[in-house]
## 1
Amino acid sequence: MKQEFIKFSLLAVGLVLFTACSKDNNDENTEEPIKGITFSMSEAPYNADMEMAGSRANADKVIKDTFTINGVEAEVTLKRDTEQPKQETRVITSGNHYTIVVFKAGTSTEVASTKGYFDGTGKFIYDAGSTPIQLSPANYDFVCYTHQYATRSGNTIEVPLQYADKAFVCKQLVTITHAKKQEIAFTMKHAGARVRTKLVAIEAPSTSVDAYLGYRANKAPTSTVYDMTTGTFAASTTPMAQKDSISQSYTSQNEEYDPVLGMNLRTSTGYNYLNILPGTKPEDLFYRIKSGNLYNTTLNTKQARAFKAGNAFEANGAYTLTIRLMPSYLYLFEDGQTGHLKDADRKDHVPIAIVFDAVGKRAISLWDANGGVKTKWDADDSNTQYVNSKTFPTPQEALNNSTSGKVWTWESWDSFHDGTSIVKVDYPRFEAYYYAGNFYTSTDLTSHLGGKTLASSLNKRNVWYLPSYYEWKEVFAKLGFGNGSLVTSMSNYQWKGNMVNYAFIAANGTPIAASMMQPTYWSSSEYASNNILVVSIDRIDMNFYTTLRWWDRGKVRPFVAY
């Protein structure tokens, strides 16, 4: 019996070994193809492949261009569109027809292919003449594309420009297993890319802006070629023979906060996308503004402007060409010369004032006097006598009198009424005059010069002064685009205070228009008994009114005659 047990055991071991060898042999040589391969598809939104900020620094390098349109400074920036509406990947159920090609993983050896579409239930329906794919367990590269929008040649497919927004493609590595059923889910991405424009300004441009975005003649490629084995796109070498474009309409207006300026800017975004192909370079495209109104001037680039050179656009990418439009103000610099902030010959100089009268050569300082601390106009609370040689019986007369405040600041007159002519700038009692006229010697100015020397023409007496009521009206009209003809009496008048603030902030100055509590600024215009004409300023209005000379809540903003 013991001998029979041994025989049985040996037989059992033999059977186990035979079974194991047979299975190994089948895995290596005679594995049956897996028949239960099914497909599903979803469509990824544009920019779905964007990585974390900073990881695409090279591919998405920001390109910039600057120029001037009728006195408006334009800064053009092209970058990935970070304002795309949030889109979830959506399942494709119908519409397109697809070709699925299978390669041995990492090779150009095609092992299978099929064609079909998805019905309304999401089921993949094979085209006539196409059959299900059967594969042995292994690793494969699957490529899926919309064949009605592409032409295959060998292991490449070509997508023409006209289908840049319709063609989809996906490549992914798939491991086929022993499972009886296996679903392969394709996430399809656009073969093309798209570009739109956005206008950014202090105030919203007119909705009638006529702008265009397009392809340059003999520059933009007519097609792109996708290599299924490498998964890469390459633009064709055949360029478009003629220029083509799409109009940009700006009906949607929003606000965005500018942390540098510390203020909200208005945005107008165009949603007429220009579809482009991967491999297209920014310099292959152009934009043009033909008409529109902003800052009381007409927008017109005169001609089409090519994008600055940059990295080629990527498939499934969405981009925005942002055109930042800012008013171009004229500044007075520390060397006594005038110019714009972006002038090449001004980059090493310090702006100190904003010119509001280039003909008469007058400007308003970038900073308050007395460190921005409020002062009295006349520190003698008991004084009821006039201190200027000219006194206005009505505010209307002051608003119509074009005499500069320089006259009353630097005049020699009997302000004490003791028979002695004096210059009020020399007497601290007349605080507003004193701080305005001596501004050139104060740290309120010199601390901003960065070690540079103030020009001799500005560093002397009889140059800096306390402005008149009329000169505040000039600032209202010439810098803030208010209607000066309406300013005929004491009242509130609308102006573009945000624009004026921008002029100061852009030059490292202190803005004069508040968002809430209106600052009050002294004028040099004396009105009736014990009263001085003043202005209070916010971003919406400039308020022209009067207050007592010994009121201690007025600020001093010096003006300069250069």
## 2
Amino acid sequence: MKKIKPHSEVASQAILGIAKSFSFNSKKYIPKDGASFSLVKVEILSGLTVALALVPEAIAFAFVAGVAPLSGLYAAFIVGLITAVFGGRPGMISGATGALAVVMVSLVTLHGAEYLFATVVLMGLLQLLAGVFKLGKFIRMVPEPVMLGFVNGLAIVIGISQLSQFKTINDLGQSVWISGDILLYSIVFVMLTMFVIWFLPKLTKVVPSTLVAILLTTVLVLALKIDIPSVGDLASVKGGLPNFSIPNVPLNFETLKIIFPYAFILASIGLIESLLTLNLVGEITNKRGGASQECLAQGFANSVTGFFGGMGGCAMIGQSMINVRSGGRTRLAGIAAALFLLIFILYTSAYIEMIPIAALVGVMFMVVIGTFAWNSIKFLMMVPRSDALVTVLVTFVTVLEDLAVAVIVGVIVSALVYAWKTASRIRAIERPSKTEKGAKVYEIEGPLFFSSANSFLELFNPENDPKLVIVDFAKSRVIDQSALKAIEDVAHKYNSFGKKIKLRHLTKDCHKLLSKTGQLVVDSDDDPDYSLAVDYGVKLKIFGK
């Protein structure tokens, strides 16, 4: 009899698993080729570039969520630092994101910011549980067409979100498009930034082109005294160190009823976006694994952030792309980005506020161009129509709804398409038996499950078949209850004509499934190992007939 572990032991093992995941390992931080001055320089400069681009985004997402700008900046710093140190993929950047902000705004509107901070703490705990139970591995179930749709949709969302930077608030408090010289100059400097980012790598890769573009645009705008919106026009970046505080909410069941639905949605969206970004960065950096580690890191980061007045966050595909394309490949870049962000908040806010919004918009537009899978447009005409449909569908749902809904829709549609295609492939090869005189053999090809069950029933001809029929599953699999029911239905039909069927060449999983339901007349372990072809009779009336 299997010994059941006490709850305390299970909890202890979970805690030890978390601690092991967060333990220091120098190999995580030092590249295989070893550290060098040039590597450290590239990583730090890449981190600086990311930090500069993080500022306006963190502020903008805080506005979307309905909280103070510093709440977005603190989230970017804390989540970014913790995930950079403990995350599953070096090179990834995490912080406050728009996908989470749009969910938060209703909670903040109805209950206030303190309830948001409590929700972020609970969100982190749920993500920690996902890491402990290794739920991150299920990201492998996301098909390639869904990944392409997610990437393209997110690129479009990032691009559209930047258009809001060309709006301003008029005297009536309305959001309107900027016009005149301000619009003209903004477009010019956006184009200049994009040109520098594209052209500079052709001359030199000593410094990140993105950083050079930001600095050049800022210097030109200040030198020419051109009046266009800057970071300081969004909000002040200046602040102090984040202070620890327990969210000021009642610690009762009513509070849990309010925050749990939001926490669950935020945790799900955060993990989906983080794990998809993890895969995307992994393809660029040629790294694999780390899904469960990323879940733990995201959960730990958000749990901490909620106690320091941060709005929570997850992996940021745009910033991650800026980082890896600027040369950031190790954890140092992410750590540097977080520390630079803190320095901006504490000491250099006045200089950061001078950066033109146009420069940062140009950076993000180049991210959009680099992120969008342009080859997928060509592939749409080459891949199966069902895959093309899934890619386009996920792209549109990502743009119109949100990432989590898009991925769920994409996976469901892909699964249904697969089931439909697989169902049509089940067939049977009929031949006389070599071992049983006068018997007929049906060699089944293709999986037997809910979608193919009806097609399976149509393969047989009980009225005209001989007294004994052997169903050979050497090239098939019995997968679910619908398959079991279909086997019994076939046996019942033959039984009504006074005939018998036997099952042959069951695999271990098929044998176990049929034995568990009591459908096998003769039980043997020989057949699963193919040591001996055992013929199994089928018991009737298991499923009600």
